[in-house]
Amino acid sequence: MKQLLRKVFLADLIEGLRVTFRHQHPKQIVTEQYPFERPKIGERYRGAPRLNINPENGETLCICCDLCALACPEHLIVVGWERNPETKKKQLVTFTYDISRCMFCGLCEDACPVDALELTQDFEMASYTREGAILDRQTLENGLLPARYRY
Amino acid sequence: MADTFLDSTELVLNMGPQHPSTHGVLRVILKLDGERVLGTECVIGYLHRGVEKIAENRTWQMFAPYVDRMDYVAAVSNGLGYCLAVEKLLGVEAPPRAQAVRVILTELNRIASHLLWLGTHALDIGAITPLFYCMREREWILNIYEKYCGARLTTHAFRIGGLQYETYEGFEKDCLEFCDLFEKRIDEYEELLTGNRIWKQRLTGVGVLTADDCKEYGVTGPMLRAAGVKWDIRKAQPYSGYEKYDFEIPTRANGDTYDRYMVRMQEMRQSARIVRQAVGAIPPGPIMAKVGKVIKPPAGEAYVSIEAPKGELGYYVVSDGSTQPYRVRIRPPSFVNLQALDKMCRGALVADVVAIIGTTDIVLGEVDR
Amino acid sequence: MAATPWESELTRALKEEFGDQILEFSSYLGQNFLVAKPDAAIPILESLKENHDFDYLVDVTAVHWPEKPEPFEIVYIVYSFARNERIRMKIRIAEGWKPRTAAAVHLTANWLEREVYDMFGIEFEGHPDMRRILLPEEWATFPLRKENSILKMDQHWVQENLGIESGQ
Q1: What number does CATH give the domain B49-333?
Q2: Chain-chain contact of B150 with A44 (C-beta, under 8 angstroms)
Q3: Hey, of B136, B164, B291, B294, which one would you mutate to test binding to chain A, going by the most A CBs within 10 A of its CB?
Q4: ipTM score assigned to the predicted complex
Q5: Between the N and C ends of chain C, which has fewer C-beta atoms within 10 Å?
Q6: Which CATH architecture has domain C4-134?
Q7: Which chain C residues contact residue B217 at CB under 8 A?
Q8: How far is B147 from chain A (nearest CA, A)?
Q9: B329 with C112: CB under 8 angstroms?
Q10: What's the pLDDT score for residue B111?
């Protein structure tokens, strides 16, 4: 009799659905709604590289010591510099960073003595061409432009 | 009688390299008689990247990120093994604080690796639910890694001589919260699987490896312990301060797939226990031993092995006194354990092969290097 | 720091059994190893397994020293569960010399020796299945030999089978 009533009133189904609905609370949702909701990125996240500039005078912090290029396991950093004839100091001319080969190990960042090269929290580095993955000095200083994806 | 009745002949079947249950690009050539496996042959190397050759062309520090890419679900353990090997050559030891943090991260990594194994293994057998649960818990660990060192999977968390990063604020709290939650969750998994009749029927008595077989094939890790050998490098030859922590080596007697499942579940509990102890006692102090900017170990060689989630992970490093390794040989546990696949599969059914590959817990990145 | 002599009950027993077949007992960084004549390698492994409980062959690998008269060094690492001891045995062999396989003593040597063959081109005599294991069968070079630089690989194979100009 009891069994019959359970069947008639779909007791098992309701019990099952209760479990389902209990886990529907927004706090219980684990999946990130990525493009609509920005993911929380760790402060130390090693993402897109950036060349820092001195905020006071807008000059680059890089002293062209070449340590990042030496530390890089993939040899993907090329620092181009020339000696300023007046001050006899090294001057940064070009700086290329090939993120298509980068494995974001952070060794370049560790090697930099003046914190000029930094791996930032930016993680959206997709581009439509291979050449687009090779960052030049300008992109590194200004940061990656928000990519406009064709979707 | 059966084969004469069915008039069956031997059949050669390719499983993989694109098969969802081979966990990567493993190709197994099965020789079948009906549903029975007569013999197997593994074809590996699809993921070969020449890691050992790369090592000879990089400096000692530069090679550290590459080892993370071998066993990519247990990257931290790989890094620990490499750092310990080079530290052995250099004759330095990481300071106590670094050792404690290393233990925490490697044990979390063991949990993460076993969780991924559990999820995929259950999925292969036909239980889909555990995969989502396991991934959810693994996410916690990856978040801790992201906060600690800035990367989630291929972490490059350790450096030769210690650590690069100081623990972040709230590191202890995160780890303890994870342990609290995890110990409840693991009961949940056990509820789903351990007593499950289908699970038991699919696993019990499948892919048996006795203790002698294990030794003969060099099989280590949970597979060896499931066969009843109480051996764990963390206890036998402690490294990185493991002798300070109180934990047990879970063993089982039969050495079949079900026992390996039980051993790994117990191991996760023990790992959580170690994390708890280690988090409570991170000593203050420096995190980096005195090693120069340029690492130049004296000429010589050393073999250092650690208990990776999959078994004994060994590094045989040879230095000729220069800044680059002369030779780095990696003894990968997956590669050696995979060799026993043939022994385990003989006489089994085709459906069991899937279970056996799952229980071997291979990562093809490490098998092929 | 140089290697120091290694003496223990085990070395005495081995010395008694093999005499001048074993060239050296040493210890470096607390890790013990012995250097043996190439012919003696398999008998020593057998003896270690049968008489001294070294029942787990951890690894077989090789190191290439091109400028030495015997350019290849084969390293066997064995472990004993009962004694909790790990030792290494090295043999030095000349180019083209074929060492005997250890697969008859420890089954695990099968794949490990195939890998040594794959990477160094050292053939093991009596091996049940002496083929390449990681690289494709038709690959021309042995990559871990020192004369093969990382930039020099089997371009021919790559172009033929993958249809690409190789990277690097």
Answers
A1: 1.10.645.10
A2: yes
A3: B164
A4: 0.87
A5: C
A6: 2-Layer Sandwich (3.30)
A7: 107-108
A8: 5
A9: no
A10: 92
